[in-house]
Amino acid sequence: MKNALLLLSLLMMTACNDSSTGGGSANTTFTPSCVTAQCRSKQRILEIPGAENVFFTDAGRLFVTGNANIYEVVKESGEFRALPRSVGTAGGSGFGGMAQRGNTLYVNVFDDGGLWAARLTESPEFSLIHPLGLTMPNGLAAGPSGELYVVNGPLELGLTLPDPKVVRVRFSASDAMQVVEQSDWLSLTGYQPNGIASVGRSLFITASRLLPPALGVLLRVDIAADGSAGEPEELFQFTRIPDDLSVAGDALLLSFFSEGAVALVSQDGDLLSRSEPLSFDSPSQLRLGRPPLFEPTDILVSEKGLLIPNPLPYGNALSLYRLIP
Predict the structure, then answer these.
(1) Which of 43, 103, 27 is nearest to 295 (CA)?
(2) Which of 13, 35, 88, 312 is 20 to 30 A from residue 260's alpha carbon, by CA?
(3) Model pTM?
(4) Domain segments of the chain: what residues?
(5) How far is Cα of residue 156 from the mean position of the Cα atoms in its chain?
C-alpha cells in the first residue's frame, strides 16, 4: 500500500513547507495538546506483524489489524496480549481500515477488495460480507446516517489503473451484515487518498496531490443534506507523506509514515503539535486511548516499519504514547 507513496516522495521533494489554509482557532479540547517527546514517552507494548490500523469500539475494546490478521488487545495479569480474531486471506497486505456501526465491526481487506465484518460478541468471527470490487480499499469511516465511506487509494501497482475515490456503502435497516447499496460518492482524481475520519457531517481525508505536487494534504468534504458530497477543501499541505488519521476531541491526530512522526492538527487546518522525526517506526494509525484498557489521554500507535517482511526490531508493533507525569 505504501510502496507507491514512498516512490512518490522521491519525485516530489520540491514541495513547499507545511502550510495551513485554516483560519480558525488553534484551541482543542484534547488536553494537553502536545505530542512531542517533551511531554510524552513511547512504550512498545505488543508485537504486531505489519501493524496497520488501530480501532477502539464504543465499549473500549481495542482491535488492531496487521498483515492478514485482526487482533483484539486484552490485558491479563497486568500484561497486554494480542488475540487473533481472524486469519484473513492468504498472502498480500491483508486487513486495513476499521469502523463500527452498532454492535458490528467492519474492516477493509486489501487482498480481495472486500468488506469484512463481525458481530462484537465475546469472540468475534470476521467474514466477507460484500465484494467492493475496488483495487485498494483503504481508509474506512462511519457516516452520520449509518453509512460507511471507503477510500480507494492511494495507488494500484498492478495492471489496473488507479481509481482514486470515496465509495459510500449503505446497509439494510434490519441486517447490519447486508449491503443494499454501493455508490461512487466522490471522485478524487488528481489525489492519492489514504485515510479517512468522520466528524458530524464532515469527512477528513489524508492524501498526496499529483499536480501541483504535494507530498501530503488534509482534505475536508462536507456531507450535504441530501447525502451528496460537497466540494473538497484543502485545509493543510505537508512536506511529508501522511498515512491515516483519527479524531481527538475537536482536533485530529495524523501519522506521517515517511517521517516517522505523528501530529495534532485542528479541524480548521492549524498545526498544533508534531513529534520529532523518526520518533516512530513508520507509523500507520493512531488513536486516543479509552478505558478500561487505557487512559483517555493515551495515544496508541501502530508502527508498521518496513513494507516487506523483516526480522529486524523495526516496526511491527503497537506502541503506547503516554503523558510524562
Answers:
(1) 43
(2) 88
(3) 0.90
(4) 3-310
(5) 18
Task: Please write the tens of the pLDDT for every residue from 65-121.
Answer: 998 899 999 999 999 999 999 855 544 458 889 999 999 999 998 877 899 999 999
Which grid coordinates are listed for 180?
A: 443494499
Number of neighbouring beta carbons within 10 Å of residue 251: 22
Let me know how long the chain is: 325
Ramachandran area for residue 112 (φ above 0: left; ψ -120 to 50: alpha; else beta): alpha
Residue type, 2: K
Query: What amino acid is encoded at 105 in this protein?
Result: L
Name residues whose C-beta falls within 8 Å of residue 78's C-beta, 6 or more positions apart in sequence. none
AA identity, residue 320: L
Whether 301 and 54 have beta carbons less than 8 Å apart is answered as yes
- Say if CB 215 and CB 191 are below 8 A apart: no
Q: Is 257 helix (H, G, I), strand (E, B) or coil?
A: coil
The CA distance from 58 to 101, in Å, is: 10
> What residues form DSSP beta bridges with 317?
47, 303
Q: Taking a C-beta distance cutoff of 8 angstroms, is the pair 231, 241 a contact?
A: no
Separation between Cα atoms, residue 191 and residue 257, nearest integer Å: 17
- Sign, CA dihedral 155-156-162-167, equals negative
What's the longest Cα–Cα distance across the chain?
Answer: 53
Judged by DSSP in three states, 9 sits in: helix
Grid cell in block for residue 312: 529486524
3-state secondary structure of 51: strand
- For the beta carbon of residue 73, count every other beta carbon within 10 angstroms: 21
Look at residue 245 and give its three-state secondary structure: strand
C-beta separation of 244 from 1 below 8 A: no
Q: Which CATH class is domain 3-310?
A: mainly beta
